[in-house]
Amino acid sequence: MTPEQLLSRDALLLSLELKLFWLVALLYGICFITGLAYLLSSKESLGRTLTRGLWITVILHTILILFRTVEGMRPPFQTLYETLSWFAWFASATYLYAQSRWKNVHLPGFIVAGISMAACLYSLLSRDPVIAPVPPPLQSPWYEVHVIAAFLSYAVFVVSFSVEVCYLGFGIKKGSEAAWSLQHNNRRAFGIIDEHFRRWTHRLVLLGFPFLTFAIFSGAAWANDAWGRYWSWDPKETWSLITWTVYAIYLHTKTIGRWKDRPASVLNIIGFICMIMTFLGVNWLVKLLDIPSMHTYAV
Known about the structure:
This protein is an all-alpha fold and 299 residues long. The chain has eight helices and no strands.
């Protein structure tokens, strides 16, 4: 195959990938709008449509990621364009797994869909989709382990955040089980629902925290491979430690009677904000303030 034919083939594959990616982003947006309609109407049919729509979107997103893997002949999380897609897929897939255990609970899905849509659009509108050679700092076996562990923790934290926001913002506002679409013959007291979902947010963070811890340790091992030192107080490293500390405090507050309710919920939300800062916000700060960083490949 001539160089011209190779370029033509690569351009065609990239065009097909982008069309599929735009379709995935559109479907996340439709799920988000469906979730808003469900929030306003509390119609069970809209809740089921939201969850089914997310299943369809995640299946298509899985095909997109496999397509990118074959196209690039490597795992698709080497650039920010790819990791944003990976982040959206991981968050939505993790939510669907958790939602399958909640049966008739659908509302948190609209927040997850909104976050996934935003990640996809940010990737499509601001990042270069071209498959480039892997930068030297990423050519370490520790990098893939680090990324998988980090995104497992991020995905779980997204789901925990979504449940927390739905309870604090919409469950209290509606003051009824309709907000969660918990349709039972015997209506339960709202306080029981409160405890049930607070336990879930705690369990989710409890699941994600070891992954985040391992991500930090594997990231240190990767840094030593790439730059010859385990820790250098790089902005991304510092913010990952801040995120870990906030979630550690959250887990401790769940053991303290007067802190385990609203203060713990606030810490959970702050932890999510710190996580987004670690993943994306640091990149903007580094570029905006011209701060030296070893993670400039992700800017």
